[in-house]
Backbone:
């Protein structure tokens, strides 16, 4: 929450007292009656989601229920180790997901627009402090400098205030409120004092509506998560199909219940729940990396989202600018520049209600505070402020030239400099004075000017741009990301600022008033083509974001004020500044801890790292699952027991996926993701399943030749293909991240030797398991002669060599006539992209 009152304001006697009033307010009986009728300010904000709902959504899924049920049956049938293996994997996945969502719930529940300040209410003619929750419709509340408006209402009786509504509207100028004007909850009184009547309380108040919208839980799936979800659904369908076929076969053959359950466990294990776990791990690692670079990741998938952004929407104040002004230049009018600087400095030091303008002047021209006998504070209504010095009785006025010009002396000449500065997007002020005392207020106490002003000089002020803004926006532009600047300030000013940070000089701008008068079709066209949007309300910001998403854009919204909350929640990705409001930070997916745009390009690289790592993980997942399905269909009997399946999964998927998530490298994706996935996985599946079938038939023939019983023949053959499938899956790891150009073919060259070294370590681990009786017993693998193990490794190496040449020469693509089409860069016309085969 921001400071809204200074020491000078507190000492300003003319505005620190409540206005004289004879208003009596409500009686206690009336308050009780209205509260009983539901007119109290007691609305409770809805919780984002309950803990029970989070647990239910994570645990009660079809695949989890199936696996838990099968685990229970295995325990009843005396196979507790099989059941324990299944439950352990599921539980680990569940814990990761539940912890992440509980953290999100707690963050959402902490959001509160109001900080529960004490309200001063008039009841039965007496002022008394009350909790805002005790207010009712019709209550009369006193507001003084620094007080927050706690319910929506309208001013009554005598008095006026200058309200700061920047947290609601995004506009930094103060708004003058007089008797009869409405005030909104969430705004602050900066100057003046008044009494307002509570009109909208509880769920009808502005504060409640904004807070309730910010607390709404949203689950936005990224393209990677959508891809993984689609794969899982397809494999779930295949698993159900195989399960139905298994049920029919076991019924016809009257197989034992234990055998049926074991087969069902293997089939259910084909659904790659671990794929989502691998994504969660990749997101977690990215969040840890970014924490050290000034970026707080509040939604796990936010880093990956940033790499998919096609449109970046940002506010002006606090994002492109540092929310500070500086003096650009001054032009004296009838006085020297040094004297003008002294007068400006003294004026800025003497005003009681400082703002960004006087702070900038004071920084450029330090001065001494002078005693004042009268003052008219600045407001957005008058666009000027004035001060009467007690010693000289001179009156100094600072304000917009177009509003002060009608009061200047007839022979005053300002020249063309003000217009030239305005065309550059600078804020221009005129500093003038009266030689003698002048009444600054009319009979009703409202500020006014009189003719006879003598111009002293023009002052131009510029927004302080964030130093990293230009470079960061240029980096996004090179990536094809389109920028939209959406602000509450005037479109002309915002457009000039946008040009300063490097946007096209011929950019288009539009105001919120113009947008509100457009038909839906015209609105959509303007949103698509326009870069700068000015005088935009929070609701219009949200509508612009929604329209961009409806047009197929992947939208990121950067903001720092409460007026940005709705659009942050509506975007694919919400980014907040640490220096912004608490509500904005909590509603965002990413928080820039140092308020620096410079952290965004590294975040994009982290997103690329996540996507590239998950593409590799998806490749080995699909190979393992698809090859298992083909082997179940091709090999007589059932090829794997649950424990054998666990060994293959552990060494070919479980350990490698974690390592690949850690070692993933940044960089843009090369080629079409889907075609690249097919290019890698399809040859591996077809050749791997045929090679495994060949090994199975050979093992059966050799076991029969050695005179083994029929049951031992099948058991030996199953052990053989378990080892072979494990070796093939481990060797595939080398081609997923090729360390040399020779090994590249399935995937582009990575130059990283760590996955290859891991493959060697896993092969050694497999040999250790096969050589230790306990290891073989745990995974139900029979003792294999050394010659058989060597033959298995040799055949696996030949398979890997054959697969490598199929990749290199794109054999399957040539057979099916498929040529990979390079993905067009973001922002380019896909129709102009050239079809080409990627060289390896």
Residues:
């Amino acid at each position: 929450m921001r400071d809204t009152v200074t020491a000078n304001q507190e000492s300003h006697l003319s505005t620190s007292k409540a206005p004289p009033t004879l208003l009596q307010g409500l009686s206690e009986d009336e308050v009780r009656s209205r509260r009983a009728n539901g007119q109290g300010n007691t609305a409770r904000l809805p919780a984002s989601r309950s803990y029970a709902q989070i647990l239910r959504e994570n645990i009660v899924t079809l695949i989890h229920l199936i696996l838990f049920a099968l685990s229970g049956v295995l325990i009843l049938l005396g196979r507790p180790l099989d059941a324990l293996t299944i439950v352990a994997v599921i539980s680990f996945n569940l814990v990761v997901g539940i912890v992440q969502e509980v953290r999100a719930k707690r963050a959402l529940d902490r959001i509160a627009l109001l900080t529960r300040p004490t309200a001063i209410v008039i009841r039965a003619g007496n002022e008394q402090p009350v909790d805002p929750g005790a207010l009712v419709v019709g209550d009369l509340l006193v507001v003084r400098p620094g007080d927050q408006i706690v319910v929506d209402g309208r001013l009554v009786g005598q008095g006026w205030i200058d309200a700061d509504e920047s947290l609601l509207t995004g506009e930094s100028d103060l708004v003058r409120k007089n008797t009869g004007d409405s005030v909104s909850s969430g705004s602050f009184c900066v100057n003046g004092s008044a009494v307002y009547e509570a009109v909208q309380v509880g769920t009808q108040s502005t504060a409640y509506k904004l807070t309730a919208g910010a607390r709404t839980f949203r689950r936005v799936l990224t393209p990677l998560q959508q891809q993984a979800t689609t794969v899982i659904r397809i494999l779930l369908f295949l698993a159900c199909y195989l399960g139905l076929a298994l049920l029919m076969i076991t019924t016809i053959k009257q197989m034992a219940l234990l055998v049926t359950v074991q087969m069902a466990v293997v089939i259910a294990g084909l659904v790659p729940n671990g794929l989502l776990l691998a994504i969660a791990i990749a997101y977690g690692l990215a969040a840890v990396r970014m924490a050290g670079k000034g970026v707080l990741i509040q939604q796990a998938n936010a880093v990956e989202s940033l790499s998919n952004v096609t449109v970046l929407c940002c506010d002006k104040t606090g994002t492109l600018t540092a929310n500070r002004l500086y003096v650009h230049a001054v032009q004296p009018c009838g006085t020297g520049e040094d004297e003008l600087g002294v007068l400006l400095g003294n004026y800025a030091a003497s005003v009681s209600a400082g703002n960004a303008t006087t702070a900038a002047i004071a920084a450029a021209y330090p001065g001494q505070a002078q005693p004042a006998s009268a003052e008219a504070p600045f407001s957005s209504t008058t666009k000027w402020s004035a001060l009467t010095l007690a010693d000289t009785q001179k009156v100094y006025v600072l304000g917009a030239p177009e509003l002060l010009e009608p009061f200047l002396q007839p022979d005053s000449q300002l020249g063309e400099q003000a217009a030239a500065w305005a065309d550059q997007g600078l804020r221009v002020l005129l500093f003038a004075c009266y030689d003698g005392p002048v009444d600054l207020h009319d009979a009703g106490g409202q500020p006014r000017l009189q003719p006879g002003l003598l111009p002293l000089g023009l002052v131009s002020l510029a927004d302080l741009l964030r130093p990293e803004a230009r470079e960061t926006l240029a980096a996004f532009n090179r990536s094809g990301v389109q920028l939209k600047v959406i602000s509450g300030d005037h479109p002309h000013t915002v457009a000039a600022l946008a040009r300063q940070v490097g946007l096209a000089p011929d950019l288009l701008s539009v105001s919120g008033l113009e947008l509100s008068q457009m038909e839906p079709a015209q609105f959509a066209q303007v949103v698509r083509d326009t870069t700068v949007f000015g005088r935009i309300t929070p609701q219009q910001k949200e509508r612009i974001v929604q329209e961009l998403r409806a047009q197929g854009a992947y939208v990121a919204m950067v903001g720092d004020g409460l007026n940005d909350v709705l659009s942050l929640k509506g975007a694919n990705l919400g980014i907040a500044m640490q220096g912004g409001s608490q509500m904005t930070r909590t509603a965002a997916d990413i928080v820039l801890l140092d308020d620096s745009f410079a952290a965004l390009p590294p975040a994009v690289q982290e997103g690329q790292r996540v996507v590239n790592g998950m593409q590799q993980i998806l490749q080995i997942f699909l190979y393992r699952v698809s090859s298992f399905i083909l082997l179940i269909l091709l090999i007589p009997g059932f090829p794997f027991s649950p424990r054998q399946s666990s060994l293959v999964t552990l060494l070919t998927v479980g350990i490698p996926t974690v390592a690949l998530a850690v070692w993933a490298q940044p960089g843009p994706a090369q080629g079409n993701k889907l075609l690249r996935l097919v290019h890698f996985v399809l040859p591996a599946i077809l050749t791997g399943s045929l090679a495994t079938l060949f090994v199975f038939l050979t093992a059966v023939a050799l076991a029969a030749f050695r005179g083994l019983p029929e049951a031992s023949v099948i058991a030996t053959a199953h052990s053989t293909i378990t080892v072979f499938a494990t070796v093939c899956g481990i060797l595939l790891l080398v081609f997923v991240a090729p360390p040399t150009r020779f090994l590249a073919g399935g995937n582009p060259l990575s130059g990283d030797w760590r996955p290859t070294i891991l493959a060697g370590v896993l092969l050694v681990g497999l040999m250790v398991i096969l050589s230790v009786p306990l290891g073989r017993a745990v995974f139900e693998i029979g003792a294999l002669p050394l010659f058989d193990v060597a033959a298995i490794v040799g055949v696996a190496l030949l398979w890997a060599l054959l697969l490598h040449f199929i990749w290199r020469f794109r054999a399957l693509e040539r057979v099916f006539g498929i040529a990979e089409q390079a993905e067009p860069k973001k922002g380019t016309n896909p129709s102009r992209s050239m079809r080409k085969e990627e060289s390896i």
